[in-house]
Amino acid sequence: MLYSFRKPNYLLEKGSSRQMQLTELSIKSQNKFVQHYIDGENMSSFFDYDIHSEDVWQKRLHDLSSRPFAREELADYLSSYHEKFHSAAMQASIEKLRDPKSAAVVGGQQAGLLTGPLYTIHKIISIIVLARQQEEALQIPVVPIFWVAGEDHDLEEINFVHTSTENKGPVKQKLPQSYWKKTSAAKTELDQEKCAAWIDEVFAAFEETDHTNTLLQNVKRCLRSSETFTDFFELLIADLFQEEGLILLNSGDPGIKKLETGMFQQILKHNHELAKAVSDQQRFMREAGYHPIIESDKDQANLFYEHEGERFLIEKENGVFMIKELDLKWTNDELHTHMEEKPECFSNNVVTRPLMQEFLIPTLAFIAGPGEINYWGELKQAFSLMGFRMTPVVPRLNITILERHIEKKLSERNIPLQEAIEHGTGHLKDNYFEEQIPEEFSSVMEQAKSQIEAVHKSARDEALKVDSSLEPLLQKNAAFIQDQLLFLERTVTKRIEEKEGFVLRDYERIQNSIRPLGAPQERIWNVMYYLNRYGPKFFTTFKHLPFSFQNQHQIVKL
After folding, report:
1. Structural domain boundaries in the chain
2. Taking every annotated instance into account, which residue ranges of this chain make up the domain Bacillithiol biosynthesis BshC C-terminal coiled-coil (predicted)?
């Protein structure tokens, strides 16, 4: 059973009567595989450990103790990399890794602008909380590590944030910067001038508060110290979690590649078997009634190669490895040697990234979002092939932040919070609006349209007997009359919207806050909105709430 504890409510600000409360709801995942995993059904065909078992952590520690790790080399590299953050807490965590009894709680995400969607923050908090809990429970050093996907090149997924205004729902604000399509986040330079202007636009969409100027200056300070997307992300995260000892592992940094060389070569050695292991596990998953999400291909080598700043997927055919776009080819031995000489040219894909993590880090647990739980379940045979047992996969905390004014509107409109989180309020708004239309109005209007059209058709028929060339004019006249009836309908509808506008806007505000764009709050909104509105003490309190890993949806009431 996962270790948890409870503490009293916290004050948002010292001396304030406003409290931050933590409550829970039971909300089911829409992914059947994920829900079965969370419910504790037998998933031993997909995972090596049962996270619901009371002795799961002792079993994992026993397994880790039998495996060698390059702890000193990893700690040396991380210590050097983290000098730029000037954080004693980070360095203290790194030193813990040298202890042969130590372990890590790991999770990762892309390097989104302004830290990306809220679920990135929630994942980091999950990592820190579980590491802290297990260090206390197991009486060994347990460090939090966040794997920054710096080698990822899908910049379209990270180059924007959503903002909102009083009269609009979420609006995507994209950084207006051009870049090479296949350049990794860790290698893509930020245009300082354009990014600073973009940040101003994002903050202009927020309501100005006593916290705005300080927050904006701090964000721009981090920007000025950054060269790339990954730099900017890491500096903001390091600032937000400066006291927690969070270790940042940038997968796109050339320095880490030297430690990964041996694993790259093992992936190469077992390349054919690895592709088959993934394919076989996916087939088994389908037969069990689940849906794989990894797009696997037996011709993929499951590794990327960087050429002149861009990443290309390595493919294989008849024992030859190649990049078709570049007309590059290697034999197995040539690629093996190339990995030894230039490991910084190679990077992982969705299949090999978890394997590389397992190779590098003595991982006690992996914190996973719903999609990750699904695709890690596709990799059990791949882990086994490489001589690993898949680390316990722990669902990250799912959190909804409930602002006081939104909670008040939920109460006024008699809307259950669970309903708003699971389904939003768009359908309730539509239902309410329909109820305001006079009961007979719609049927009377439809009857009027039908009867008038019938009378007009009779008139058209008689007119055509006089002159058949009048057909276009008559049809235009008929359409004009129907348009007038539509105008009447629209006028009535508009008057209802004006009359009920206050109530209808309440439904919209609830939807935009809790389930924007029909998605969970944490997938759309960014932490900067809350930092701007509630200040730094909000975040200090938020990240120290007594969250529990009992697979309940966490509600943070502000």
Report:
1. 260-287+295-344, 425-511
2. 399-558
pTM of the model: 0.91
Residue 412 CB: number of other CB atoms within 10 A? 10
pLDDT at 16: 45
Decide if pLDDT at 14 tops 80: no
CA 72 to chain centre: 32
d(C-alpha 140, C-alpha 151), whole Å: 32
Give residue 3's pLDDT: 36
**Rounded distance, CA 366 to CA 111, Å?**
18
Asked whether 351 and 294 are in contact (CB, 8 A), the reply is yes
pLDDT band, residue 15 (cuts 50/70/90): very low
Whole-number pLDDT of residue 253: 97
292 touches 286 (CB < 8 A):
yes
First vs last C-alpha separation in the chain: 30
Burial classification of residue 253, based on how many CB atoms lie within 10 Å of its CB (0-12 exposed, 13-18 middle, 19 or more buried): middle
DSSP letters for 247-296: EEEETT-HHHHHHHHHHHHHHHHTHHHHHHHHHHHHHHHHHTT-------
309: left (phi over 0), alpha (psi -120 to 50) or beta: left
Q: Are 337 and 321 in contact (CB under 8 A)?
A: no
Which tens digit of pLDDT belongs to each residue from 416-426? 999 999 999 99
